[in-house]
Automatic annotation (TrEMBL):
One of its GO terms (biological process) is L-glutamate catabolic process. One of its GO terms (molecular function) is glutamate dehydrogenase (NAD+) activity. PANTHER family: GLUTAMATE DEHYDROGENASE (PTHR11606), GLUTAMATE DEHYDROGENASE 1, MITOCHONDRIAL (PTHR11606:SF13). Keywords: Oxidoreductase, Phosphoprotein. Residues 6-123 form the Response regulatory domain. Belongs to the Glu/Leu/Phe/Val dehydrogenases family. It comes from Lujinxingia vulgaris. The keyword Phosphoprotein applies. SUPFAM superfamilies: Aminoacid dehydrogenase-like, N-terminal domain, CheY-like, NAD(P)-binding Rossmann-fold domains. This is Response regulator. The modification 4-aspartylphosphate is found at residue 58. InterPro entries: Aminoacid_DH-like_N_sf (IPR046346), CheY-like_superfamily (IPR011006), Glu/Leu/Phe/Val/Trp_DH (IPR006095), Glu/Leu/Phe/Val/Trp_DH_C (IPR006096), Glu/Leu/Phe/Val/Trp_DH_dimer (IPR006097), NAD(P)-bd_dom_sf (IPR036291), NAD_bind_Glu_DH (IPR033922), Sig_transdc_resp-reg_receiver (IPR001789).
Length: 548
């Protein structure tokens, strides 16, 4: 960061102007150059003349008032960070502002030099980090969700800054040989460990052509909150390789996985960080990771990964666990609503590990699954998709493409089908401001991570559609991963029904806690789940204290 920070202060009260300018100029760490405008139009004109590093914005100005002021300025200056300085000590407004992208909300009557200069410094650091490798819509979503919860909890601002970015992140480039021996590809790989406070870190490995540090960081953050919500003794982590797995042969995938594992070998381990499967990886990937790690250790170390095959010490029920967990949570929500599930319909987006198992268990409960999809498109059958036939087709072809029964439709059309339960179980950012108004379901159960944008969340809440958030709805995977790790450490093996009953009990308990929290704080289920997770991590950090 250069030592000179250009601040644009938009403030009409001369006393406050002087106060803020003085506070900034007295700050020791940074050299602030302050320009002042009294109205929004003047401020924007000054910004156009010469951009600022940060904007300090009063909300009550002669030409604009309240939240509108923020939106007007944000629309013209993005991505420059905005810190709101206001006389209004209004929690709802503060939450709305940070959720919509304000970096901080400071109440003038509580202002002092230290608070102001730290807030500006943190705002600048966040903007700088997000402009680089961390630039990602998913991280923006994870940050907005977290800052909203932090604002509602009045979380200490140092903890807020610390939890916004990972404690450790490793970026690697790795070469692997294609089957044509002379051809070598070099790709980017990542392993991000968000919070090291709670125990070893835990999180999947994703192979996808869009993976980047920001996306992996967002996923690692969500893992932290998810593990904390489920009371599992892990911090969050995530890994990924930017590659198209469907263009690689089995041998190529094996070489890539082994090289990725050896590049991150120093930061993983049964007591350090335990990978698992995610998008584009599966139990075979975990078997190769375990083997590579074990070869280096000189003995078998099954507990270094979870989601491995049962024959290598995997847990019964792990492969199905995320989809099964989604359905356990749907069952709880249905019970609360007094629904009979055999009178209900569902649509599932994504027919991979999570989606196909969720569809199967819904079908077993008598729910009519009228639509499913994958990246090649969707299928609609009002009488219910024949999942057995579909599974046979997918086993042969690999995708839904060419499946003859039912009507074909796009993923966008599938999401708007009339049904009781919609299960997005594919990729992020599927339910957005542009389609949230058109959804025709009563419940959204998030199998995928981050499928709903914050704007869409607001629209769904307004429309009375309940979202069972990813932190809770897809927590079955990491919970059974925890069971697998425990079984590995104890050299024991639980039966399928032991696994499923323990999973059901933990998810039911978490569901009830989240619902109670949401009623107590009058917030949606996502915010309630986030607050529960963030609060547990914050308390643990405070208990451990600051080293040195
Ligand atoms: P997967 O690779 O097994 O399956 C993904 C499915 O989504 C495939 O059918 C693919 O064709 C489909 N898909 C990809 N892009 C799509 C698009 N744009 N539109 C529609 N379909 C698309 O992956 P998975 O393990 O089932 O993971 C799915 C989601 O669930 C991810 O968001 C992942 O982070 C999340 N998740 C997975 C687990 C787990 O245990 N596997 C646990 C928690 C959360």
């Amino acid at each position: 960061m250069s030592d000179r920070v250009e601040v644009l202060l938009i403030e009409d009260n001369p006393v406050h102007m002087r106060l803020i300018e003085n506070l900034l100029k007295r700050g020791l760490e940074l050299n602030f150059e302050v320009r002042i405008a009294e109205r929004v139009d003047q401020g924007l004109a000054l910004f156009e003349e010469k951009p600022a590093d940060v904007i300090l914005l009063d909300l009550m100005l002669p030409d604009s008032e309240g939240f509108e002021t923020f939106l007007k300025v944000k629309g013209r200056v993005e991505p420059t960070p905005i810190v709101i300085l206001t006389g209004l000590d209004d929690m709802q407004l503060a939450v709305r502002a940070v959720e919509s992208g304000a970096q901080d909300y400071l109440v003038k009557s509580q202002l002092n030099g230290e608070l102001l200069s730290r807030s500006v410094r943190y705002a600048l650091e966040r903007a700088r980090a997000r402009a680089g490798e961390w630039k990602s819509p998913m991280l923006r979503l994870a940050h907005q969700q977290f800052l909203k919860a932090a604002q509602l909890m009045n979380l200490d601002d140092n903890l807020r800054q610390r939890l916004l970015f990972p404690q450790r992140s490793q970026v690697v480039t790795l070469p692997f040989r294609r089957d044509d021996y002379g051809q070598v590809e070099t790709v980017f790989g990542y392993r991000v460990q968000h919070v090291l406070t709670m125990g070893p870190t835990k999180g999947g490995v994703r192979y996808h052509h869009d993976v980047n540090l920001g996306e992996v960081t967002a996923l690692a953050m969500w893992m932290t909150w998810k593990c904390a919500l489920m009371h599992l003794p892990f911090g969050g982590a995530k890994g990924g390789v930017r590659v198209r797995p469907d263009t690689l042969s089995r041998q190529e995938l094996q070489r890539l996985t082994r090289r990725y594992t050896s590049e991150i070998i120093d930061v993983i381990g049964p007591d350090k960080d335990i990978p698992a499967p995610d998008l584009g990886t599966n139990e075979q990937t975990m078997a190769w990771m375990m083997d590579t790690y074990s070869e280096q250790a000189g003995h078998a170390v099954p507990t270094v990964v979870t989601g491995k095959p049962v024959v290598l010490g995997g847990s019964r029920g792990r492969k199905e666990a995320t989809g099964r967990g989604v359905v356990f949570v749907i069952e709880e929500a249905a019970r609360q609503r007094g629904w009979r599930l055999d009178e209900r319909t569902a649509v599932v987006q994504g027919y991979g590990n999570v989606g196909s198992h969720a569809a199967r268990y819904l079908d077993e409960l008598g729910v009519r699954v009228v639509g499913v999809s994958d990246h090649t498109g969707g299928i609609f059958d009002s009488t219910g998709v024949d999942l057995e036939k579909l599974d046979a087709h997918v086993a042969e072809v690999g995708t839904l493409e060419g499946y003859a029964q039912g009507d074909r439709l796009t993923n966008a059309e599938l999401l708007e089908l009339k049904c009781d339960v919609l299960v997005p179980a594919a990729v992020e950012n599927q339910i957005t401001a542009s389609n949230a108004g058109k959804l025709q379901c009563e419940l959204v159960a998030e199998g995928a991570n981050g499928p709903t944008s914050t704007e869409a969340d607001d629209i769904l809440t307004e429309r009375g559609i309940t979202v069972l958030p990813d932190l809770l709805a897809n927590a079955g995977g990491v919970t059974v991963s925890y069971f697998e790790w425990v079984q590995g450490i104890q050299n024991t093996m639980w039966t399928m029904s032991e696994v499923n009953e323990r999973l059901r009990a933990l998810l039911q308990e978490a569901y009830r806690r989240v619902v109670a929290q949401s009623e107590e704080l009058s917030v949606d289920l996502r915010t309630a789940a986030l607050i529960a997770g963030v609060d547990r991590v914050a308390r643990a950090k405070l208990m451990r204290g600051l080293y040195p």
